[in-house]
């Protein structure tokens, strides 16, 4: 017998810190860090088409209480943008082709369970 039920309790707390800085000559960057903690009475039950499986005494939420598996407790993200120097006359052909270019990047470092990458190829 399979029973699908929507129940449980969930607690999520987070600390978010960020810094945004713009320099001269078209350089800017942003740095952010988050520390999160989440606990649930039905940990490990948020995966699958109809949720997951609860193991143990279903009448005792304290027995199932614990951290969720999908959380990323520490997450550090930085991004930058640099406007490349170009010709002063942006209305000329040279200015249209070589002006207005930006260089940008994003770096993400996080902790937690490894991500599972999958690839499905159907037909040709």
Protein model, in words:
Strands 1, 2, 3, 4 and 5 form a five-stranded antiparallel sheet that branches. The chain starts with 9 loop residues before the first strand and ends in a 14-residue tail after the last strand. The protein has one domain (10-110). It contains two helices and five strands, in the order ββαββαβ. The protein has helices at 61-64, 93-98; strands at 10-22, 27-40, 66-67, 74-83, 102-110. It is mainly beta and 124 residues long.
Name some characteristics of this structure.
elongated, 8% helix, 5-stranded antiparallel β-sheet, mainly beta, 124 residues, 5 strands
Structure at a glance:
This protein has 2 helices and 5 strands; from the N terminus they run ββαββαβ. It has 124 residues and is mainly beta.
Number of helices: 2
When the domains are counted, the total is 1
Instruction: State the total count of DSSP E strands.
Output: 5
Specify the oligomeric state: single chain
The level of helicity is: under 10%
Judging from the principal axes of the Cα atoms, what is the shape?
A: elongated
Please outline the major beta sheet. 5 strands, antiparallel
Question: How is the topology of this model organized?
Answer:
Layout: E1 10-22, E2 27-40, H1 61-64, E3 66-67, E4 74-83, H2 93-98, E5 102-110
Antiparallel strand pairs: 1-2, 2-3, 2-4, 4-5
């Amino acid at each position: 017998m399979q029973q699908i039920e929507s129940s449980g309790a969930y607690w999520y707390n987070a600390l978010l810190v960020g810094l945004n800085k713009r320099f001269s000559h078209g350089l800017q960057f942003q740095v952010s860090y988050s520390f999160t903690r989440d606990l649930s009475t039905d940990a490990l039950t948020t995966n699958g088409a109809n949720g997951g499986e609860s193991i143990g005494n279903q009448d005792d939420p304290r027995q199932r209480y614990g951290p969720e598996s999908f959380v990323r407790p520490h997450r550090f993200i930085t991004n930058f943008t640099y406007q490349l120097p170009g010709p002063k006359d942006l209305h000329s052909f040279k200015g249209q082709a070589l002006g207005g270019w930006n260089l940008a990047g994003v770096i993400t470092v996080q902790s937690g369970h490894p991500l599972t990458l999958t690839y499905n190829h159907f037909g040709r």
